[in-house]
Amino acid sequence: MSAARNVAAIVQKEWRHYFGSPIAWVALFVWTMLFGIFFYFAFSFFVQRSAMSAQHMEMGGGPAMSLNDWVIAPVLQNMSVVALFIVPMLTMRLFAEEKRQGTIELLATSPLTDLQIVLGKFLAACGLYALMIVAGLANLALVWHYATVNPEWKPVLTGALALLLFGGSFIAMGLFVSTLTRNQIVAAILSFCLFLGMWTLGWADDPMGGPAGKVVAYLGATTHLEQMLKGVLALKDLVFYLSLITFGLFLAHQSVESQRWRA
Amino acid sequence: MKSPAALFCVSEDPKNTMIEVENLTKRYGRTTAVDGISFRVHKGEILGFLGPNGAGKTTTMRVLTCYLPPTEGTARVAGYDVFEAPLEVKRRVGYLPETPPLYPDMEVVEYLDFCAKIKGVPAPLRGARIDEAVGKVRLGDERRKLIGRLSKGFRQRVGLAQAIIHNPDVLILDEPTAGLDPKQIIETRELIKGLGGEHTVVLSTHILPEVSMTCGRVVIINRGRVVAEDTPANLTQRLKGAAALKLEVRGPREAVLDTVRAVPGVLSARALPGEGAAVELEVDVEQGGDVRADLARAVVRGGYDLLELQRMGMSLEEIFLHLTTTDAAVAEGAPSVEAVH
């Protein structure tokens, strides 16, 4: 009971910082703008192609193109790249700023556990990130409004979930990095490098390669994105992201706790 | 709310002892910041923690507020061990660190509301507690301002309001008057005095007059050790040794000195270097009896004019200097602080 109240208090405070500073607004602006641009290009490309394939149809060939495959999935895929750049913005100040301002002393001497602090900060960043996803998805309302054949909504949901889990695991890792320094910029740069590293692991998947490459690729942050964007919700993908999130939070918690012992 | 941590309530005298520190040691790597200190603070008392910078005051306070774990020894607040039951201790302690832990992008009231929440003030009481804290530290006109726009003095008050927001049994204030202007310092001292009685207060400072003005008892620490512990008045008394008097007399220097030395009870007298008709004398006299009347009579009878006669009590400042300077002498076997105890 009181644990949930403490976490909620931290979440609320972090949102106050996000929206009281330009961070949340810049993140929302960049995210929705890029979402709109990607959506626009994917959609015009789709319209072009479907006009072409309609001509083919008259000549008797080709299946109808799916909005899910040609517009929604690619846009969400692109947004995962954007997340790579935006998440460090959301996580850099979470602990670094508290340490610089000395307010970590307030949190640490209040009847809160370290876990409640870590969870509160994680959920706050995830909440803002989820809001960004929802704001981006508003573009799709146009599709539902105008398309003669509506796209399927289930792949949209799994796609959004994929984006959320993917970003969530970055947020957990970024949170950990933020506990390591009192300088926000350092935290942002380190997180970005870490995310990039996690990203590139996925490239190790070489069809001709041995099992080692497969294992490394399995750990890549993007490897588990593809199926979900296509609308396939596999347990192993969920488990992968959830364990990555747990791992990040665990590291952050250990780091906060151990710094008190070493301090 | 009953928590399992309540089992750790083991203090023998829970009514009177609020803080109990026993043989507390804190090491950072190879340096020892606090070296086996022990003291007790009774309920409602204001204890001054006095020592030069780097003496270990902040470290001790951080252990008491569960910010740092002790390396050795124990500290109990309101009967709860800081190591075994930190949440119970934190619930009962209000802490103002050296730099007030403030969020500059928050409004005063907003910040206090957050503090009240994380310190477990129930929602229905929160508004009243905030009003009370704001009233006590006189922040009324600033309650809607952004903390980042407040002056240093007001920030310190917000920090203090934060410490008392959950009406804690114990208040721990780390240099609460540092960096304030004289008027603010006086106000803060008054405020702290007002908090004693209801709360148990431990405050640290390296400014000496502060202790004699606000505290009922002083613990002087130096290099991580307690070097003295008493009331400010007793400390002065104990360290006096010989009482000193200061005289200003008009007359020939040597003759005046001889007259003064002849008075029974006078241990020694010396003239301060100076020109002119008047001689300034420092006179050491025996403790106990009062020789001032005899001195005055002797001077006047000798045909000299007595211009001034003043008792010089040793101020806490001198004691402090004495303590910290003779502390090094202890090791060399010189007459020491230990003799004073």
Give the SSE map:
The complex is a heterodimer of chains A (263) and B (341).
Chain A: H1 2-20, H2 22-58, H3 67-91, H4 93-101, H5 104-108, H6 114-137, H7 140-146, H8 154-178, H9 184-200, H10 211-218, H11 225-230, H12 235-262
Chain B: E1 17-28, E2 31-42, E3 46-50, H1 57-64, E4 72-77, E5 80-81, H2 86-92, E6 93-96, H3 108-118, H4 123-136, H5 152-164, E7 170-174, H6 182-195, E8 200-205, H7 208-214, E9 217-222, E10 225-230, H8 232-240, E11 243-250, H9 253-262, E12 266-271, E13 278-285, H10 292-301, E14 305-312, H11 316-331, H12 337-340
Parallel strand pairs in B: 3-8, 3-9, 6-7, 7-8
Antiparallel strand pairs in B: 1-2, 1-4, 4-5, 9-10, 11-13, 11-14, 12-13
Helix pairs in contact in B: 3-4, 4-5
Number of discrete helical segments of chain A:
12
Provide mean pLDDT of chain A, rounded.
Answer: 89
Question: What's the helix-strand series of chain B?
Answer: EEEHEEHEHHHEHEHEEHEHEEHEHH
| CATH class descriptor of the largest domain in chain B | Alpha Beta
Total count of domains of chain A: 1
Oligomer: heterodimer
What's the main sheet of chain A like?
none
Give the strand order of the largest sheet of chain B, numbering strands 1, 2, ... along the chain.
6-7-8-3-9-10
Which chains have the largest interface? A-B, 27 and 28 residues
Radius of gyration of chain A: 21 Å
Radius of gyration of chain B: 25 Å
Give the number of DSSP strands of chain B: 14
Strand percentage of chain A: under 5%
Strand content of chain B: 25-35%
